[in-house]
Amino acid sequence: MATAALEVDRVRKSYGKRRAVDDMTFDIRPGELFGFVGSNGAGKTTTMRIILGVLTPDAGEVRWLGRPVDFAARRQFGYMPEERGLYPRMKVAEHLRYLGELHGMSRAGARAAADRWIERLEVSSYASEEVQNLSLGNQQRVQLAAALVHEPKALVLDEPFSGLDPVAVDVMRDVLAERAAEGVPVIFSSHQLALVERVCHRVGIVGGGRLIACGTVGELSESAERRLLVDAPEAGENWAAGLAGVEVLSREGTRTRLRLAKGADDQRVLRAALATGPVSTFVSEQPPLTELYRDLVTRDDAASAETATAGAKGTAGSESEGGGR
Ligand SMILES: Nc1ncnc2c1ncn2[C@@H]1O[C@H](COP(=O)(O)OP(=O)(O)OP(=O)(O)O)[C@@H](O)[C@H]1O
């Protein structure tokens, strides 16, 4: 099993009475691109801020290479905050050099690194411009350069892809993949699930401040309802209707996509298809991350609602018992 580089261990954080992060536990391995996804307000930014030490957790711990993260470790991280954080009046190249030196680089080293990232992120024509004069997408490229300029050992990026044009998305993706290939663990949050599915090794899904699922897309799909693609050229429109636990998702020509509830028998589906004539395709399909995400989040919401109802009943029961005494 790969050793973890960055570990988030039972981290908890509340803002007043609101529990933003609850028992959050996951790890990121060297050279791994880890996608951090979840609905608005799920707790991603809070978790990332805790990793960076911008926020202190109420409980739990973040470890880097097996030790609690301290200031020296955090200096080795590259961070792209959600609210971004560049000085608008500073010039791009000057800004990046300044950040490099702030992280302990020599003047010459910071200059060389700034130049290198300006070129790599294709913002050379803005190097002498004030940050505030750049478009938002170009400011974001500079923001990534700012996270990278000191050659960080880990990258924590809050929605780095939001608002980028397709070419900038490709540049960002390539840079992150390159860093990961160099052994750097990379965690980034995103709502662009198709992109996350394409680029990430593993995905963590956050709901209500907790990690509700984590793994490769293949692993996540193991807990999901199975999908089948069946091509039965002589079958009528409704050949699969009425099969227990089977839902017809779509029909395109002679191909039918089916979703099987847990425990539904795929051999019965095959027999039903064969009863119509030849079957040229009968394969399991991995659902896209977007669907896995919906299934997992919906299931988690339902489970939370059930727990809350049970809790409320328990409380009501004990209150009435108390009242009767
Ligand atoms: N400074 C704050 N004060 C009070 N509540 C906060 C604060 N920051 C975040 N919260 C709350 O904590 C919860 C988690 O927010 P967080 O920003 O971590 O979610 P997120 O997953 O990053 O959401 P998004 O995808 O919208 O960026 C939300 O309910 C949010 O309203």
UniProtKB/TrEMBL annotation:
Homology family: Belongs to the ABC transporter superfamily.
Region (Disordered): 303-325
ABC transporter domain: residues covered: 6-233
Keyword terms: ATP-binding, Nucleotide-binding, Transport
Compositionally biased tracts (Low complexity): 304-319
Signal peptide: none
Domain of life the protein comes from: Bacteria
InterPro entries, per database record: AAA+_ATPase, ABC_transporter-like_ATP-bd, ABC_transporter-like_CS, DrrA1/2-like_C, P-loop_NTPase
Keyword ATP-binding recorded: yes
SMART domains assigned: AAA
PANTHER family: ABC TRANSPORTER, ATP-BINDING PROTEIN
Molecular functions per Gene Ontology: ATP binding
Keyword ATP-binding (UniProt): yes
Protein name as catalogued: ABC transporter ATP-binding protein
Pfam families hit by this protein: ABC_tran, DrrA1-3_C
